[in-house]
Write a structure and sequence with these properties.
The complex is a heterodimer. By secondary structure, chain A is mainly β. Chain A is 0% helix and 50% strand. Chain A is built from no helices and eleven strands. The radius of gyration of chain A is 13 Å and the shape is globular. Chain B starts with a strand and ends with a strand. In chain B, the strands form two sheets. In chain B, strands 2, 4, 5, 6, 9, 10 and 11 form a seven-stranded mixed beta sheet that branches. In chain B, strand 9 and strand 10 form a beta hairpin. Helix content of chain B is 0%, strand content 50%. Classes of the chains: A mainly beta, B mainly beta.
């Protein structure tokens, strides 16, 4: 099974900050990686697919990069609506989520 | 749009059947999944069914106990959950595969809560 490890688990940031979340796969997954945003009591929302492709309707301040085993989600100019939990997901072999990164207000 | 139903309280060893009704897209053209989230925990993929009904995949944690199925004529996805355990307590989401070229999940239902307790 492919394991996904996100870091950090919690991130404190201020509005306007640039935020980076890292996701590491236990083996190469090529570019088969997605990022989701989840707010309390809500379903996850797809932000990025195929490691760096922005889902339609998602603000351009979100970007993804990486391939193989190391991936990053970057949020430029953090907005109040961006405080949430973010999950990476591999879909190279079945599906596995990272444990999540909570972005909280500093 | 995806709308789940069928959640509720079940006893350990009991059964529940979840449903997910799809609308506003051609359901028969998309693979579908169930994903769960235990209270205060992260996301766990549970099961996948292709657009035609085969192939089907399960997470090891539910293999042999849960059965995924779909009825394309009714635009509906199902999850039959047997031999329920306390650790199956979670919000269960149905989620659509993005496309035949990309197996991320682009649309999710609002979730239905399953509680397993005596």
């Amino acid at each position: 099974d492919i394991q996904m490890t996100q870091s950090p688990s919690t991130l404190s940031a201020s509005v306007g900050d640039r935020v980076t979340i890292t996701c590491r796969a236990s083996q190469s997954i090529s570019s088969w990686l997605a990022w989701y945003q989840q707010k309390p009591g809500k379903a996850p929302k797809l932000l990025i697919y195929k490691a760096s492709s922005l889902e339609s309707g998602v603000p351009s301040r979100f970007s993804g990069s990486g391939s193989g085993t190391e991936f990053t989600l970057t949020i430029n100019t953090l907005q109040p609506d961006d405080f949430a939990t973010y999950y990476c997901q591999q879909y190279y072999s079945y599906w596995t989520f990272g444990q999540g990164t909570k972005v909280e207000i500093k | 749009q995806l709308v789940e139903s069928g959640g509720g309280l079940a006893q350990p060893g009991g059964s529940l059947r979840l449903s997910c009704e799809a609308s506003k897209f051609t359901f028969s053209s998309y693979g579908m999944n169930w994903v769960r989230q235990a209270p205060g925990k992260g996301l766990e993929w549970v099961s996948h069914i292709s657009s035609s009904g085969s192939p089907i995949y399960y997470a090891d944690s539910v293999k042999g106990r849960f059965t995924i199925s779909r009825d394309n004529a009714k635009n509906s996805l199902y999850l039959q959950m047997n031999s329920l355990r306390a650790e199956d307590t979670a919000v269960y989401y149905c989620a659509r595969v993005t496309s035949s070229d990309d197996y991320s999940f682009d649309y999710w239902g609002q979730g239905t809560l399953v509680t397993v307790s005596s």
